[in-house]
Amino acid sequence: MILDILTPDKKVFSGEVISVTVPGKAGSFQIMENHAAIISTLDNGLVEIRLTDKSQELFNIKGGVVEVLKNKVVVLADGVVEE
Amino acid sequence: MANLKEVRLRIASVKSTQQITKAMKMVSAAKFRRATDAIVQMRPYANKLKDMLANLSESVADMDNVFTQERELNNVLLVVITSNRGLAGAFNNNVIKATNALIAEKYAEHQKQGKLHIVAVGKKSQDFYTRNKFQVIGNNNEVFNKLNFTNASAIVEAIMDGFAAGKFDHVEMIYNQFKNAAVQILTQEQLLPLPKAVQDAKASKVDYLFEPSKEEIVEELIPKSIRLQFYKALLDSHAAEHGARMTAMDKATDNAGELLRSLTLQYNQARQAAITNEILEIVSGANALAEA
To answer: Which residues form the ATP synthase F1 complex delta/epsilon subunit N-terminal domain (chain A) (predicted)?
Structure first.
């Protein structure tokens, strides 16, 4: 499954992942391989990515939208808080 | 010979001017590259957002969003985007001229009744419209010092709030769109209410799940796309500015070179004339002595 995290300023993340957890407006949810097509709005919060080598990566995003379509996940965030 | 010295001084001054224009060209070239980079970086986001809106277009069409509402034209807001600095050829002048033409053509009545407001982005338009006693709202000159989405959003959010509150019924932007380093396209674009043309786009035939609901997503995406449109205008104008300055300074450097050539010629001629004169004097002096 391929994940892209985009902001208007730059591409924050792009690559192959096992799963990703996003802070949906109606509650946080996890997206895994073969997830159904969905568009959901996101709150401020953490995007948790599990990479193919089982390591984890975190991004603190400032609201946005996520779209899942055919094992391609795109997170459009307004911004990413730099750690 | 005074002429000789004068020419020498002029050569020196033209040379130093040329050095300045050359340096400015280099600086602009570097900034230009960074500015076009920012546009490229924004593109994937913009495309994806457009796709998503296209997928939702049916619900956008019959949505009664604040920002898509056409209202009676009462108060007009013009967003005039220029640069903070000059020496970029006709860059700023073009925008101001086009804005004035637009005001004269479409909004003369509003202007008379004090229903025309201006948001100036960039010092050049800010100065012009303040000087000419227009109703200029706010001061947005710092945005170009650190141009990013957050800073740009602050400005456009104030505009959107004003629109939602009914302070303006129509918002237009005038700016230079970036085409390439040498060409800027003067653009006039409606920001609010969101033009219908943007809303009509072909949807893909995927059955998406929508969370929380289609309407709420649209509600959220519309302001996003307006913010992005404004940010894009700023990025475009920024890149166009540096492109325009680059070409203007390149021309200036060339012109200085030309001037230098003709001045050097003039200098050499004057010097040769002085030498000839001196020889003549010596020869005629010697002749006079020989005759005596």
So the answer is: 2-79
CATH of A2-81, one of 3.90.180.10, 2.60.120.10, 2.60.15.10, 1.10.8.10: 2.60.15.10
Alpha carbon dihedral A69, A70, A72, A77, in 10-degree steps, equals 10
Q: Which of A3, A4, A7, A9 to mutate to test the interface with B (most CBs of B within 10 A)?
A: A9
Q: What is the pLDDT along chain B (292 residues), one digit of tens a residue?
A: 458 888 999 999 999 999 999 999 999 999 999 999 999 999 899 988 888 887 776 666 666 678 877 888 889 999 999 999 888 888 999 999 999 999 999 888 888 888 899 999 999 999 999 999 888 888 888 888 888 888 898 999 999 999 999 888 999 999 999 988 888 999 998 888 887 655 455 556 677 888 888 888 888 888 888 999 999 999 999 999 999 999 999 999 999 999 999 999 999 999 999 999 999 999 999 999 988 7
| Rounded-to-integer distance, Cα B160 and Cα B151, Å | 15
Residue B285: CB atoms within 10 A of its CB come to 10
Q: Does B206 contact A41 at a Cβ distance shorter than 8 Å?
A: no
Chain A, nearest residue to B217 by Cα: A41
Distance in Å from the first CA to the final CA of chain B: 31
Nearest CA in chain B to A9: B42
Q: Where are chain B's structural domains?
A: 2-14+250-286, 26-248
Measured CA to CA, the distance from residue B56 to residue B74 in angstroms comes to 31
Bond prior to A8 in cis (omega within 30° of 0): no
- Nearest-by-Cβ selection for A76 from B45, B55, B209: B45
pTM for the complete prediction?
Answer: 0.86
Task: Tell me whether residues B52 and A9 touch, CB distance under 8 A.
Answer: no
